[in-house]
Design goal:
Elements: E1 4-12, H1 18-28, E2 32-43, E3 48-53, H2 56-69, E4 74-77, H3 83-96, E5 101-103, H4 118-128, E6 134-135, H5 139-146, H6 154-166, E7 172-174, E8 183-189, E9 194-200, H7 210-223, H8 228-245
Parallel strand pairs: 1-2, 1-4, 4-5, 5-6
Antiparallel strand pairs: 2-3, 7-8, 8-9
């Protein structure tokens, strides 16, 4: 049976993040990708100049169209900028009950542009945390969700992961890509264990869409039936290689994308 993953997220007109990054990642990892578009962004490697949200009822229509026809093995959720859209997605998850849902609480683009309204943050916590098997905040997103300073140490990352679980998350992967040091260390916090996933920190300005790519890579591995730890390990290795290969691309004037198809392009 063909592994199928669905991304529920915003579109990046520059092609480096959001829906576009997710679908590229699914394809690169051998998974068929479908999509539910929650917003259109006028965006490039330099920044976001405009956001046009999809109506909540149209988000619902997309969800029902996809899930009523395709056998969906995993879901990745990205940019949800408005409360009514968050409610629509939560209701859709309740209707179709996918086995695996990865929530990437996207709040700020790589360029620094904010992608979510303040009142929508709490809705993500109350409606989507309980419905996701895994959430994947970066250090800034975790700090925003907890109204705390950004974690500076591994211990602080572990503590914030536990705090997010107290707010309703089942399992938390604290992404360390925005940290410092020679290694990029992600911290997985579950009810019973803490696990570190390490990779060399890649020196490149081409980091656009890194978070989207990691979360969609995890969802792709879930769709193929792999375990939590194995999915994260494969996804992190994929992102690390995609970052390393990004210097072979010459795209845009700002923070360019990772190289999703480094395996295939010559």
């Amino acid at each position: 049976m063909t592994a199928i993953a669905v991304t529920i997220a915003g579109s990046d007109s520059g092609g480096g993040a959001g829906i576009q990054a997710d679908l590229k990642t699914f394809s690169a990892l051998g998974v068929y990708g479908a999509s539910v578009i929650t917003a259109l962004t006028a965006q490039n490697t330099i920044g976001v100049s405009a956001i046009h949200d999809a109506p909540a009822d149209f988000v619902n229509a997309q969800i029902d169209a996809v899930f009523s026809d395709l056998t969906v093995n995993a879901v990745k959720i990205g940019m949800l900028s408005r409360t009514d859209i968050i409610h629509a997605v939560a209701d859709g998850l309740d209707r179709w009950k996918p086995a695996y849902t990865v929530l990437d609480p996207v709040m700020v683009a790589t360029s620094g542009d904010r992608l979510i309204r303040d009142d929508a943050v709490e809705a993500i916590v109350t409606r989507l945390f309980p419905r996701a098997q895994l959430i994947t905040p970066n250090l800034a997103e975790a700090a925003t969700l907890l109204n705390e300073p950004m974690a500076q140490t591994l211990d602080a990352m572990e503590q914030q992961g536990k705090a997010l679980m107290k707010r309703g998350a089942h399992v938390v992967l604290m992404k360390g890509g925005h940290g410092t040091g020679n290694e990029s260390i992600d911290v997985l916090v579950t009810a019973n264990t803490i696990e570190h996933f390490k990779a060399p920190r890649i020196a490149t300005k081409n980091t656009h869409g890194t978070g989207c790519t990691l979360s969609s890579a995890i969802a792709a591995e879930f769709a193929k039936g792999h375990s939590l730890s194995a999915s994260i390990r494969t996804a992190k290795a994929y992102v690390t290689e995609a970052l390393a290969a990004s210097e072979t691309l010459d795209i845009g004037k700002g923070s360019g994308p990772v190289h999703h198809f480094y395996h295939f392009w010559k």
